[in-house]
Amino acid sequence: MSTATNNVTVITHPLVQHKLTLMRRKDASTNSFRRLLGELSTLMAYEVTRDMPLQDIEIETPLETMTGQVIDGKKLVLVSILRAGNGFLDGMLTVVPGARVGHIGLYRDPATLQPVEYYFKMPSEMEERDIIVVDPMLATGNSAAACVDRLKKLNPRSIKFVCLLAAPEGVATLQKAHPDVPIFTAAIDRELNDHGYILPGLGDAGDRIFGTK
Question: Which residues bind uracil per the record (predicted)?
Fold first, then answer.
């Protein structure tokens, strides 16, 4: 279940919303937060991969030969924006275990809120691949836009962006920079505070995933 407007899809499935609410609670433990994120990313992956192309293959059932359809998972690349994006990977790979994985390291300068790249590693032959960028939070949108800037230089077939929570400001930033990139999220929250955190949000996703501060 989802609602889509202006290339933004909010995944409204009851299980997604239920688990998101549990994750938002400030007393959720690191263990439960991490487990819920894995479950949520698996559920969201079903919606994000809904339009992935299928190819026909011939197989043998116990009774006869037939033509079935499969996804070519090797053509899919999951790109994690470090470090919090790694919390999304396991759930996504449960759905498409054949996907390749790329990583981009970006940190946000606390003074300017602008992204600074420190790591970039992708599979080969990216021009033949479809990319799903994963990052739990779309806050200012600057890191997401910078990530897509970098990925477009590799000429992939397509790019999607998936996050757990988005702020209206982040959605606007990413759409202005890359209107062709669909955004998938479980919720669009009210606003950003002066420090660039989403309100009401769920705090720092990376710290809550990894138990750091």
Answer: 198, 203-205
pLDDT along the chain (213 residues), means of 10: 77 94 91 90 91 89 95 83 84 88 85 82 91 92 92 95 95 96 96 90 79 74
- The residue among 49, 56, 59 whose CA lies nearest residue 91 is 49
**Encoded amino acid at 15, one letter:** L
CATH 3.40.50.2020 fits 8-48+75-210, yes or no: yes
Binding residue ranges for 5-phospho-alpha-D-ribose 1-diphosphate: 83, 108, 135-143, 204
Q: Which two three-digit tokens encode residue 147? A: 């990530």
What would you measure as the largest C-alpha separation in the chain, in angstroms?
A: 66
Q: Which of 157, 163, 148 is nearest to 48 (CA)?
A: 163
- The upper half-sphere exposure of residue 51, i.e. CA atoms within 13 Å in the direction of its Cβ, equals 7
3-class DSSP assignment, residue 31: helix
**Structural domain boundaries of the chain?**
8-48+75-210
Residues recognised as catalytic: 108, 112, 204, 207
In this structure, are residues 101 and 90 in contact, taking their beta carbons and an 8 Å threshold?
no
Tell me which H or E stretch contains 4.
strand 2-5
